[in-house]
Automatic annotation (TrEMBL):
UniProt keyword Transmembrane, yes or no: no
Family, as annotated: Belongs to the zinc-containing alcohol dehydrogenase family.
GO cellular component terms, A-Z: cytoplasm
Signal peptide interval: none
Domain Enoyl reductase (ER): 18-350
Annotated InterPro entries: ADH-like_C, ADH-like_N, ADH_Zn_CS, ER, GroES-like_sf, NAD(P)-bd_dom_sf
GO molecular function: alcohol dehydrogenase (NAD+) activity; zinc ion binding
Record's keyword terms, sorted: Metal-binding, NAD, Oxidoreductase, Zinc
Protein name as annotated: Enoyl reductase (ER) domain-containing protein
Length: 354
């Protein structure tokens, strides 16, 4: 078992944040913990698209150790972490995007509001993340995990699964209604198809190419629409009975996807923004479009701890089986480039060696 703050760990460290970023695998010291924190020895970490966005410098400064989908066990407890805490030494836990929040602002005090706190700190952004053997976590924010499911099925839920599951709840569509997932073949999309089907929704998967079609169909999408061929909006409307879909979740980081999504909606439809478009791209919509059809536009960011417990329960019951490719942390320099080129279907989970 690791000693707090002594020894070294293997980490994939970010250099040259920006368009020519790179990860270099090296040994760095194991961090020390404050009284309210715990040290988690990680067995795996998921790779999230936002890690790539951070590395590319598209959303401001970040740490050199990214990563926010970690699964592991607690190996050291801070002196102020009481025996009444929900976690203890050796507890199996998950580490997500939120490291901590101020806990006292008007946003934090709202139900499920903490993830919107303006003073929040995130793993990989303000404090080191999970692309290392160990991570320091605030004891109040560490997520207890069930013992049953394998590590590689739980890691993708901590950000990707949680995000898309919460967005599906937020979109308001009910069982039997048509929804559209734009970017259905990626990490969020492959999880989204499974959650949506488990929730009784009818799924139109939009992505590009035959490979993504095979993946989306295998996971249960009712209809696949290839955005590289023909009139995407017309095809989606036809598939959803002519009037348009009840909801569209934009998971792709593309302005085009946003502007097509709004056209795919029927009356009282909801567009949920999840993907971060490239610089200079945005959603442009005339207010009359919203007025005439009663359309709502909203956004969704990760989810609450309740949402996470629900999202994990689908995996525990075997209803959602994340499509994962397990690789090693040492391969991150290569994998990050593959992700940048859009070559990855499903989620990549990186194994840590100890
Ligand atoms: Zn706050
Ligand atoms: Zn993420």
């Amino acid at each position: 078992m690791a000693q707090t703050g002594s020894g070294t760990q293997t980490a994939a460290v970010l250099f040259n944040q920006g368009s020519d970023f790179k990860f270099i695998v090296q040994n760095i010291p194991i961090p020390t913990i404050e009284p309210s924190e715990v040290l988690v020895q990680l067995s795996v970490t998921g790779l999230c698209h936002s890690d790539l966005v951070l590395a590319q410098g598209l959303v401001g400064a970040c740490r050199s150790v990214l990563g926010h989908e970690g699964v592991g066990r607690i190996v050291a407890l801070g002196s102020a972490v009481s025996s009444y805490s929900s976690v203890t030494l050796n507890s199996r836990v998950g580490v997500g995007w939120l490291h901590d929040t101020c806990g006292s602002c008007s946003i934090c005090l709202r139900e499920s509001g903490r993830r919107h706190c303006l003073a929040q700190r995130n793993h990989g952004r303000h404090v080191d993340g999970t692309f290392a053997g160990y991570v320091v976590v605030n004891a109040a924010f560490v997520q207890p995990l069930p013992e049953g499911p394998p590590d590689e099925f739980l890691a993708p839920i901590l950000c990707g699964g949680l995000t898309v599951y919460t967005a599906l709840k937020r979109c308001g569509a009910r069982a039997g209604q048509w929804i559209v997932l734009l970017g259905a073949g990626g990490g969020l999309g492959t999880l989204g198809i499974q959650y949506a089907k488990a929730m009784g929704l009818l799924v139109i998967a939009v992505d590009g190419g035959k490979e993504k079609e095979a993946v989306a169909t295998k996971l249960g999408a009712d209809v696949y629409v290839d955005f590289t061929e023909g009139d995407v909006v017309a095809k989606v409307k036809e598939a959803s009975g002519g009037d348009g879909a009840s909801a569209a979740l934009v998971l792709a980081g593309s302005g085009r996807a946003y502007n097509e999504a709004i056209e795919m909606l029927g009356a009282f439809g909801t567009l949920v923004a999840v993907g971060i478009p490239k610089p200079g791209e945005s959603l442009e919509v005339h207010p009359l479009k919203l007025i005439d059809l009663g359309i709502q536009v909203t956004g969704s960011l990760t989810g609450s701890l309740t949402d996470l417990n629900e999202a994990v329960a689908f995996v525990e019951r075997g209803i959602v089986k994340p499509l994962v490719e397990v690789r090693s942390l040492e391969q991150l320099p290569l994998i990050a480039k593959e992700m940048e080129e859009g070559k990855i279907s499903g989620k990549v989970v990186l194994k840590h060696r100890h």
